[in-house]
Every structure is written in structure tokens, then in C-alpha cells.
Amino acid sequence: MDSLAAAPGTGPATSPLPILRKPRPAAKFADLPTDRTLVMGILNVTPDSFSDGGKHATADTAIAAGLRMFYAGADIIDVGGESTRPGALDVSPEEEQRRVVPVIEALVKAGALVSIDTTHTSTAAAGLKAGAAIINDVSGLTMESEMAELVASSKAPYVLTHRRGDARTMNSLAEYKDVAGEVVAELAGVRDKLLAAGVSPEQIIVDPGLGFAKNDAHNWELLQNLDQLDSLGHRVLVAASRKRFLGTLLTVAGKSAAPEERDAATAAITAISAFRGAWAVRVHDVAPSLDAVKVASRVAAARTTH
């Protein structure tokens, strides 16, 4: 019987969102919308992420949160099991996989397109086996060179993020004379390593790495110069959601805005990024950013008709 049931880990009073018992057809990357910027929902299955650490730390609560994003219209759900905030402690690939694999499997069965957010090759492989369609590696190949071989052999789309150092050292490496130019050049260098390993250009998605080895001024300058990333010839992902530089901007009475108070500012960056042609934005709160990309798409369309 294909009756509807409440999302795992929730009761009827707290989660009216249903999940079909019968799996839906697997979502495909090729079927993603092409007439607007995509919205990637962030799902951290971690105890220590800067914004939502601990909120989705069990499989049931993570699956329920992912389904809420999916039903809110997220094009992609980005599932991660290790915090990448500055100063975060490393997590073993085994623990990371224990956290994320059941969540990926459940979301894929519900019909969601999932990306695996990891710096570990073995976790990326496990995520793909569980049904994930995209690898999102914020290390920019600085952690494990074997990742390039997996991307080439799997033919999965790969998010190449600009980063210097790791979670413990990145802040000390935030020194640039021309941040946009240097980010583009460093991304091009890693991109060339991917191509040499047999990765096709169409697989590569570039992310300027806001907040990774960048201070507030660097982040704003990168957003001002997003068009420079277009010179690389790849899709562009912008991931600004709830990051510290937004909290600083929204400081009131000397107190930085808390992560949950940064969603309106995030949606503003979504609209700007979408208007400037970003392929996707990565956000915690899906609905406002989905509205923002639709508005940006409509304004851009009106501009081209006059």
C-alpha cells in the first residue's frame, strides 16, 4: 500500500510534510532547471557547524530537515558530515560516512537530487554509491589528490572551491594584493590538475570560497567581481549563506548578527548573484532564496526584451 507517512523523526503535530513509501525515480543532474539560478540547500549532519550544528545530528532529524528543503523547492540538497568552519576539528571518513550515507539514501529515494559535501575521497565515493549526483569538495584538492581520479572515473559534477590551508590555518593565509585575480588564477591551476587527471570541463563547477582564507573585505570584493570567474568557462556556485561577514555587516549596538538573523542578507546576495548569472547559490533557508532567484530571472528576462 502506497500510503503517506510522516517524515522520519517527527510526529504529525510537528511535521505535516509527507514522504512517499514508494521510492520516486532518481533525480538527474541533466534535468535541473536551466532558465534560472539553482538553489542548493545546506544540510549539515554535524554537531559543530557554525549555523546549525547539532540541529540535524541524527539521521531522522537530518532526513526530516532535508525533506523540508526538498518540498520547499530546493533544486539540490548538499549533505555534509564534517564542519568546515575555521577552527573546526577533523572528522574521520568512517564517522563522516556513518552520518551522511543513510541521509543521502533516504533523500534520493524521496526524489531529491543530492550532493555530497566532503573533502575525503572515500566519503565522496560512498556518497555517490548511496545515490548522490554531485561532489562538493571545499578543500580544492588540497586534502586528497585521489579525489581527482574519483571525479574522472565517476564522471560526477564536481564543485571546485577556492581555499588556502585547512580549517585551522586558513585565516592566517588571507593575504591578497588582488583577491579576485588571485582566486581566479589559483582556481585555474587546480582546474588544470583536474583536466590532466581526465576530468571533463563540463563536470567542473567553481566556487570562489567566500570565507575560506578570506576576510570581510575580500568577500565583498569577490562578490563585486563575480564576472571574473566567468573567464574560467565553468558554472559558478556562490556560497555566502549566513557567513560571518554578513553578521559583521548587520552589527547592531556592537553585537554581530547571529547566523539565523542573516537570512535576509543572504537572500539579497542570492538575488545579486542570480542577476549576474551564477549557476547556483548554496543556502540554509531555501524559500527566500528561491523567491530571489525567480525575481532576478524575471528582471533579467525583461531587460533582454527591450
Summary, kept brief:
The chain is an alpha/beta fold.
* Average pLDDT score: 89
> Can you give the helix content as a percent range?
25-40%
Task: Indicate the proportion of strand residues.
Answer: 5-15%
Structural class per helix/strand content? alpha/beta
The CATH topology assignment is TIM Barrel
> So how many helices?
9
**Spatial separation of the terminal alpha carbons:** 54 Å
With strands numbered from the N-terminus, the spatial order across the biggest sheet is: 3-4-5-6-7-8-9-10
Overall tally of domains: 1
CATH architecture: Alpha-Beta Barrel
Q: How large is the radius of gyration? A: 19 Å
Name of the CATH homologous superfamily: Dihydropteroate synthase-like
Uncertain stretches: 1-16
Dominant shape: globular
| Number of extended strands | 10
Largest sheet report: 8 strands, parallel, barrel
CATH top level assignment: Alpha Beta
Helix and strand pattern: EEEHEHEHEHEHEHEHHEH
